[in-house]
Amino acid sequence: MVGMKIISGTSNRALAQNIAQKLNLRLVDAEISKFKNGEKRVWIKDNLNGENVVLVQSFSTPADEYIIEFLLIADALERSGARHVNAIIPWMGYSLQDKLFRPGEPMAAKIIADLVSNAYIKRAHLLDLHNTSIPGFFSIPTHHHSSIELFSKYIKKNVDLKKAVVVSPDFGGLKRARSIANELELDLANVDKHRDLTTGKVTPMGISGNVEGKICLIYDDIINTGSTVVEVAKFLKQHKAKEVHFFVTHGIFAQNGLTLMNDESINSVVITNSIHHTQLPEKIIVLDTADTFVQALKTWM
Question: What whole-number distance in Å separates Cα of residue 216 and Cα of residue 239?
């Protein structure tokens, strides 16, 4: 990996450090601070002239701040003479706003894709987007990676598959759930739920498949506020599920989402480090995605 450098924004430095370590590299020396008026200030101290650079930044909360920081770093890299800049965006903030729900709304995911594409970025690496058509919003080569292998390895090592069943939390997640059910050679069940379009409250209405006495494995892309997770877990326990475990790529945990994860109906929640958290409840387990991105970098750089 001669000639490759890794630079990190401030949103997920721990993941960037893991990627650098696996490649036997150190992070680029960069100072990211704020002016007294709150504006971001970026200063790259290393000489990057002619180098291939990988910029790691999650667009997590506060998304606006981290996106601006990403764009400033990309511009600084161009002015520093970097040859090529590849972006690793483990969590793409605004990606849930991928369509127009009401007249007068913006296509936020497309705007973010345009910002990244028009920065000094040659190629973008993304992870488990809610809508797999989003890479098409970018005008640069974009690679959409999956965490399914990461979760599958964990499940095979830690779960008695003879007693397990994969459960889709809703109809929209069936394709995703089926993919990991096939990988694990497990049966698939599906929760039928109703969402109140006014309040957003989710109510499980029924279930297809047998969960009685089973270890239920729920594979999804995002936990946002966590309210749906709790409702689904309670519903499965009411249908005599033995255990309920969630495997979710992006743990956003908005509002009081982390507190909700302590509900007794949830046995464990396994997430990735696509979004950095300083402190998590004991039942939340974090898997490292660094290898996923390292393999991609070895292929393309």
Answer: 11
